[in-house]
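Protein modeling request. Please complete all fields; requests missing the sequence field cannot be processed.
Requester role: graduate student
Desired output: 3D structure, token encoding
Chains: 1
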Amino acid sequence: MKLLSELVKDFDYTVVSGELDTTLNDVVFDSRKAAADNVFVCIVGAVTDGHDYLGGAYDQGCRVFVVEKNVTARDIAKKDDGVTIIRVENTKRALACMSAALFDAPAGKLKTIAVTGTKGKTTTTFMIRDILEKHGIKTGIIGTTGVYVGEQYIKIANTTPASYDIHHFFQMMVEEGCAACVMEVSSQALKLDRTYGIMFDYGIFTNMAPDHIGKNEHADYAEYVYCKSLLFQQCRHGVFNIDDKETVNMVKDASCDIHTYGLTDNADLYADGIEYISGEGRLGIGFDVHGVWNDHIEVNTPGRFSVYNALAAILVSELIGVDTENVKEALLTTFVKGRVEQIKISDKFILMIDYAHNAMSMESILKTMREYHPKRIVSLFGCGGNRSKLRRYEMGETSGRLADLSVITADNSRDEEVLDIIEDIKVGIDKTEGEYVVIPDRKEAIKYTIVNAKEGDIILLLGKGHEDYQEIKGVKYPFDERVIIREILTEIEKAK
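Delivered output (496 residues):
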């Protein structure tokens, strides 16, 4: 329980009506959760406006409201029935501050590490988590694949959840005995003030490419870059990929101290002697590290981008004070569900699951796999329904151009027909000389790639990644590709 005066102490406000000595149990920003013992914060969103639901929240018993529009008690109720209204300039920021106060400022009780960038965020967070835990620092994660608090796993809808949820998860981590949290911070989260008021101990910039531009996201690339840069005005130590052209914009208005990593010797930490490791059904990468830290490193995930992710993790670990052996041991075993995740079923070929679900991420992984000189690259993918057809054309063309064999199948077809989506993919792939087969049933498509695998192949199951369902006509059916692969292997064995 908190007094309203305690919840609003960290920002400027005007008391329109009522008193600040009201005792409250919770802060809500969804009017459906409004009740007599909480305060309703009216958030203005891209689609809905919380101010439109003041009356509904009142009818459910709520009597304390935080607004950013000119609202009076008479606008909410027909009579002044003990209504308290606090007006602020920005309710999103107010929500962030009130949430921190509600949960007793848990961010200050953790070592906080925030990772932003277009690609590499998820893998980098897991690398850092594994390194810190190897060093004896119990660490939670918030990111694309969910929230990890000790042994507890929580699914979330957004890469970076609402400010209330962030502070709630921080509190859970503190109660669980965590000493650190590493989290992905998206450009949308920074734009919408979800991390407002948090002073992160460390902020990491991975890389930048056009993404998340369009309706309800970013107006243009310039805004996307600017929003990413905001992280470095709310962290103490900044870690930057010096090889990325947008680093200059990330550091331009940064208030943190600056540390750099990359593949050139002008970085504080840099790598050379890159070696592509393959054999016995696995892929990895090795490299030498120089600068503020010197050693040879091997990483359990393939590709040049893995070097960058590892360098970011190593540099943060060095700043924190983790010893060398713990870093090396952790990076040897780190893997992220659905991110170039290797499923070992044979020494003769490689089978991997990856979340690549647009042309940019597909091109990146296909080019990465080509660096390992496979006999063939087999690309299995579909496209989501209720999404832009342009993505389907582009993915079809990319796979046709860069894979030796494309297996076109289902993904989350949602409200569309799978065969209609496949026809759109074929528009793109038919622009190339690439060989392809169409197998609409995704399980049968996966079985086809395994049964017809050749020695030296790399088979990529793209699009689902960490997801464990297929969404069809509004229903999410269980579909974890790891489970599906085990079922297929059992079927093959029984058929012998």
